[in-house]
Design a protein that fits this description.
The structure holds 3 protein chains of 3 kinds. By secondary structure, chain A is an all-alpha fold. Chain A is about 80% helix and about 0% strand. The radius of gyration of chain A is 17 Å and the shape is elongated. Chain A is built from 5 helices and no strands. Chain B has 2 domains: about 100 residues, Beta-grasp domain (Ubiquitin-like (UB roll)), CATH 3.10.20; about 130 residues, Fumarate Reductase Iron-sulfur Protein, Chain B, domain 2, CATH 1.10.1060.10. Chain B is elongated. In chain B, helix 4 packs antiparallel against helix 7, helix 7 runs antiparallel to helix 8 and helix 7 packs across helix 10. The longest helix of chain B is centred in the last third of the chain and has 17 residues. In chain C, helix 1 crosses helix 3 and helix 3 packs antiparallel against helix 4. The longest helix of chain C has 30 residues. The chains are: A mainly alpha, B alpha+beta, C mainly alpha. Chains in contact: A-B, A-C, B-C.
């Protein structure tokens, strides 16, 4: 499915940055909506937080933390690429961003279970 | 289809404008054969109506680039051994450009963007002045010297997905050209170049996918050049420039 | 489709959010231990000027950043352009800003 001219690490890093950004942008209104229950329906917020004890929801949360972390670390790489002196190690930096995001999301998951 | 041990099965794009389809040719294999050799053999021995473009045959003129197995390449310096899979080759006109006929792409949109990106020289002197002495050792000159090795082959333009998805985008080659002129002390109006690359289709639309740099046959780095333009436009913005 | 001003807004909001996001992730890892409850979350955030400023700034930056990011995606994948693209960007940003500020007020007031 990935066309031949795209099959290289930095294009994959671009795809990951775009998909994680899109995923976060779609998640945020839901996140905000649930939090605003605290204003006048605290029992609904608690019900929602109990729902998040479900192991499947925990895995979904791991996914969300990964999206956030990979977007931040990937974004840091892009800011460095654009504003710091050029580094020829872009592939290594992109791989490090993914590895760092896995570490962070893994740490979150281990605390959550 | 089983491949003949001495023959290549070559799917070649035939058609003009948006119409067309692949046509298969059986081409004899030879020692040290390039993609351009394959296309030339088809035109000379199988179908003289096949249209394609080339000139120098040695990787200097930038006129023979085509899509080879889905990847943009300079065909005169791409050996078939490097790209062949199961004795089958697919050759198509460059991506992101209109097709004139068969393998000949219309390069006008590509070169229009060179002008739009500020890729014209703004002179500081006229013919009555002495030639300006430029030190080849400054970091700016070394950086520009890399960029001016561009042969205008449009491989980067064909490789870029931002070009494909954003009709206004100036593309890697034009922006790299603008970067070399911006770095040139002989250019009288670097601000005009920053203006030209800061519009709706300017350098800020680049997503640093890096396909331009990966596929450039001359090993140039348009992604780095575009990052340089981004940095300079931002610092000009903070300096209260234009 | 992205000019210098939109690019600057995109990059500056990103820079603002880097420490905020890392802080948010740290708080999440800390708070998720032993489960979450509304009382626990609100006990930390209610009446706190610090959290109000932290998440208020976060919501402002993310509304800007996500609206411009969505503008790029919608233009490049759906081909929306011109005035319609501008309206889409503003609506996306306003939706995030309004729901986001409402959430910040809900947990800090």
């Amino acid at each position: 499915m990935i066309r031949p001219h795209r099959s290289h690490p930095l294009w994959t890093a671009y795809l990951l940055h775009r998909l994680s950004g899109l995923g976060l942008a779609l998640f945020l209104p839901v996140h905000f909506y649930v939090l605003s229950f605290a204003l006048n329906q605290p029992e609904r917020l608690d019900a929602f937080l109990r729902f998040s004890d479900d192991p499947l929801v925990k895995i979904a949360e791991f996914g969300l933390v990964f999206l956030l972390a990979v977007h931040v670390f990937g974004g840091l790489r892009l800011l460095a690429l654009e504003f710091l002196p050029w580094s020829p190690r872009q592939k290594t930096l992109a791989a490090s961003a993914v590895a760092g995001a896995f570490l962070v999301a893994g740490a979150f998951f281990l605390q959550a279970v | 289809m089983t491949a003949d041990s001495n023959g290549l099965h070559v799917d070649v794009w035939r058609g003009s404008g948006t119409e067309g389809s692949f046509e298969r040719f059986l081409v004899p294999m030879q020692e040290s054969q390039t993609i351009l050799d394959v296309v030339a053999w088809i035109q000379q021995y199988a179908d003289p109506t096949l249209s394609y473009r080339y000139a120098c045959r040695v990787g200097m003129c930038g006129s023979c680039a085509m899509m080879v197995n889905g990847v943009p390449r300079w065909t005169c310096r791409t050996h078939i051994k490097k790209v062949i899979k199961d004795n089958v080759l697919t050759i198509a006109p460059l991506r992101n450009l209109p097709v004139i006929k068969d393998l000949a792409a219309d390069m006008d949109p590509f070169f229009d963007r060179w002008v739009a990106a500020g890729g014209v020289h703004h002179p500081t002197r006229d013919r009555n002045d002495a030639v300006e002495q430029i030190s080849p050792a400054t970091p700016e000159r070394i950086e520009a010297d890399a960029g001016i090795e561009c042969i205008n082959c449009s491989v980067c333009y064909a490789a870029c997905d931002t070009v494909a998805n954003n009709v206004d985008f100036l593309g890697p080659a034009a922006l790299q050209r603008a970067w070399t002129l911006y770095l040139d002390p002989k250019d009288a109006d670097p601000g005009a170049i920053l203006d030209a690359v800061s519009g709706r289709g300017g350098c800020h639309n680049c997503h640093s996918q890096g396909s331009c740099t990966l596929h450039c046959p001359n090993g140039l780095n348009p992604m780095k050049a575009i990052a340089g333009l981004k940095r300079e436009t931002v610092s000009s913005f903070f300096r209260g420039g234009r | 489709m992205l000019d210098l001003r939109l690019y600057m807004a995109q990059r500056l909001s990103a820079m603002v959010m880097i420490p905020l996001t890392l802080g948010h992730i740290a708080v999440m890892i800390y708070a998720i231990q032993d489960g979450l409850s509304a009382a626990e979350i609100l006990g930390r955030t209610r009446g706190s000027v610090l959290w109000f400023v932290f998440y208020g700034l976060f919501v402002l930056a993310v509304s800007l950043h996500a609206a411009i990011g969505l503008r790029v995606i919608v233009h490049e994948t759906l081909g929306l352009k011109g005035r319609a693209l501008d309206i889409f960007m503003w609506l996306a940003g306003l939706l995030l800003l309004v729901t986001g500020l409402r959430a910040v007020l809900a947990v800090t007031l």
